[in-house]
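Q: Fold this one first, please.
A: Sequence and structure below.
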Amino acid sequence: MIDRPNGASGCDGTERAAGTGRTGADRGQLVLLAAIALAVALVPLVLAYLQLGYHDDVRAGGGTAPDVQATATLERGLHDATADVPFEYDWRERDAAVDDVRGQLASTIDAVERSGLDRGTAFTVSYNRTRAARWAARHCPSGPDREFGRCLADRGVIVQERQGRTHVLGAAFDVTVTTPDRELQFSTTVERRTG
């Protein structure tokens, strides 16, 4: 017998791998079969990777924590709801001003409460009267040298008398964020932006 190097031709003209008894065509089919098996095994991994990166509702601030998103939305809503209050309500009409602000904020609160439902996150928002009263007591100066009138917390909305008109300074809220994994409760006082 003559030793032949790998891939040498046998008597019948077919190439055989040394010691395997397989032809080059058999080896090619085996490699092809292994490649197909590997591709089939990788398909679920590729699909999982693509789904992890998928987000059907990309919004500004989408990567922000839910508490930050809720507070920012409430802040914008408060600003929009209170822009005309000083022009429409004098200090004697502050109860009506608070009614109007709360009425306009109802749609913002509803939007916050519905905002995470498509992602399995539920928000609950309510006014925090105690927090509003504490904020008013701490942040509004008192005494004879104050520049503006007194502050009052009315049903969670903080108002102040300035030159006989009603000005809204802020509102206090309790927010509960519920996800399938956890529940987060926090209180926040949203101050009206002046710009």
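Q: Good. Now the second chain.
A: Here it is, same layout.
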Amino acid sequence: MSNRIILGISGNIGVGKTTLVERLAEHFGWDFYKEPAEENPYLKLYYEEPERWGLHSQIYFLTNRFEEELRLSNLGRSYILDRTIYEDGEVFAKIALREREYNTYLKLYRLAVRYLPKPNLIIYLRAPIDILIERIKKRKRKEENLISYEYIERLNRAYEEWLKEFKYVKVVVYDAKEDIIENIESLISLIEREIKSLTGKG
């Protein structure tokens, strides 16, 4: 693919985004952005006290993503996003923040979106909540020990609402209830077909 492609991989916590992004980056030879969940100094605090630390955590994610995506976009090469900025602003922040906080956050979010190139395509990985919880427990990240079933359920509902309303970029939904790596070839083929249909090149 000679034209620059920006590919977003989206989905709930535990669905397998980061694993997929790393495999796709290796396959295509593209750069990628990995969400810095483990580096976020507010994330564990947020899971412990959501109302107190929600804004801190969401601002950290937003500013980190903006800086890194801006750097990648300036390179002029294709790259892959581990979650998109739209999910930061329209899914996670929406359920993490109180109304006044969210309205303040939206000003920064909308400004960031204006300065970043939009993806050519977003692949949304969808999986049942029980499977997401199982995968979260299996990967044993310390900051995720406090994640509840109810929180993942709220995120799932927020994602489904987002999918209905979001029209800015084409989103392809992929059933990720089975192991993604075991089905990596079929998923790569799907992505290649979708990119070809958008760009006319494969």
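Q: Anything worth noting on the second one?
A: The chain has one domain: 6-199.
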